[in-house]
Amino acid sequence: MTRVYYKEAVGAFIVFDVTRVSTFEAITKWKSDLDSKVYLPSGGPIPAILLANKCDQKKENSMPSSSQLDHFCKENGFVAWFETSAKDNVNIDDASRCLVENILQNCKNFPIEENDVSTVQLEKEPLTAESKSLCC
């Protein structure tokens, strides 16, 4: 079922709740599932960023430290990680910016299909008044 949600994804956030250790324990399962079902045209994994959400709430003592999260992300192929609070809008913009920057870096390597109808081609001639009136 997750393949449907991942279809044509070019980047991802994987989120865990700092107040619930079980959500941190599930990260590797989610990352593995993502990496097995969607890839870049080069065959590599799409950029994924780990979000440690609810940083506005008290953390459980068993949550990893910043250095442990750095190491965890490097070992598991995450581009970066951010402490976030969706409630208080903490680091949401920074995390999104980081993901978009990584997506754009990868887009430079995407193959461009000349006859792809889903892309906008700006070099075509503008519509004339006569052709505009034919729209329904």
From TrEMBL:
InterPro entries named among the record's database cross-references: P-loop_NTPase (IPR027417), Small_GTPase (IPR001806)
Keyword Nucleotidyltransferase set for record: no
Record-linked PROSITE patterns: RAB, RAS
Record key words, sorted: GTP-binding, Nucleotide-binding
Domain of life (superkingdom): Eukaryota
Family listed: Belongs to the small GTPase superfamily. Rab family.
Name by which UniProt lists this protein: Ras-related protein Rab-32
Originating species: Staurois parvus
